[in-house]
Specification:
The protein has about 260 residues and is mostly beta strands. Helix content is about 0%, strand content about 40%. It has strands at about 10-15, 20-25, 35-40, 50-60, 60-65, 70-75, 75-80, 85-90, 100, 110, 115, 120, 125-130, 140-145, 155-160, 165-170, 180-185, 200, 210, 215-220, 235-240, 245-250, 250, 260. The strands form eight sheets. Strands 3-4-7-8 form a four-stranded antiparallel sheet, with no helix packed on it. It has a four-stranded antiparallel sheet with strand order 9-10-13-14, with no helix packed on it. A hairpin with a 6-residue loop joins β23 (about 250) and β24. The chain is globular. It starts with 11 loop residues before the first strand and ends with a strand.
């Protein structure tokens, strides 16, 4: 994993009331290029008061694995709760640069990324966090019933609802073929198959995505290809979950701003 910086165990909590970061306990493993996402459970919990308990999942990334400070992609995961990091079971794959989201249903989906063998290979696999005994730290990761159509890195994952069903839109990233595509993970079916190969208007990697109040997803920016010499986009496009199509936003020639209808 040449080119990575030095992973660190340190962690801070941001306090919006004061606008400051407050140091907290160290993670169990030094990490970089990992995923982090809130996890909400309901019920009694052994390390805090009963009720709704907020936890944060930290998983994967690049870590230092030996005294020689060799860097390696890792599958390990931990949960931050009540001011402490506690280990949970590992992911099914070592992942760095994966993408993660918590769906409206509460399921946490981790998709894609790169892994060690073969070197810097892009992962098509995806997995989700399961609570084997809700209200405890007895978590495990379960692979989705089928992988994504493409291996992806530098992609986006956004929770959406498609025909009333909870889903996740995975868009762009990966190699130059994958960057033109998007696909949907459907939780009830635990599958990507029904909506493979949705076409983006433009190929994108390392772009951004945001869920709008009306349920559509705004995709903007990013690089045009995996070749850094190809430059970046200033174009944006919209995904409509009613039609499962992308359409490009429109530039106003008088102001230069883009309007989204």
């Amino acid at each position: 994993s040449a080119g990575y910086g030095t992973p660190t165990k340190s962690a801070d909590i941001y306090d919006p009331a004061t606008g400051r970061f407050i140091p907290t306990a160290d993670m169990l493993s030094a990490r970089l290029d990992h995923v982090s996402v809130p996890v909400i459970i309901t019920g009694p919990y052994s390390f805090s008061a009963p009720g709704i308990t907020s936890q944060t999942l930290i998983a994967g990334g690049v870590s230092v694995i030996d005294a020689a400070r060799v860097h390696e992609y890792v599958p390990t995961a931990e949960i931050f709760t009540a001011g402490t990091f506690r280990a949970i079971g590992p992911m099914n794959a070592s992942r760095a640069g994966a993408r993660v989201t918590m769906m409206n249903s509460g399921r946490v989906l981790i998709a894609g990324g790169v892994t060690t063998v073969p070197a810097w290979s892009q992962l098509a696999s995806a997995e989700y966090l399961s609570a084997n005994n809700p209200g405890t730290l007895n978590y495990s990761f379960t692979l989705t019933s089928a992988p994504m159509y493409y291996g992806r890195v530098g992609h986006t994952v956004t929770p959406v609802r498609v025909q009333g069903r909870p889903a996740v839109l995975i868009a762009g990233g990966g190699d130059n073929s994958a960057m033109w595509t998007a696909e949907l993970y459907l939780q009830r079916e635990d599958s990507f198959d029904d909506y493979a190969q949705i076409a983006l208007v433009r190929s994108r990697i390392f772009h951004a995505a945001a869920l709008l109040n009306d349920g559509r997803v705004l995709i903007c920016g990013g690089r045009r290809s995996s070749n850094s010499l190809d430059g970046e986009w200033n174009q944006a496009e919209l995904f409509d979950p009613r039609t499962c199509d992308f359409s490009e936003s429109v530039r106003d020639p008088t102001t230069g701003f883009r309007s989204i209808e």
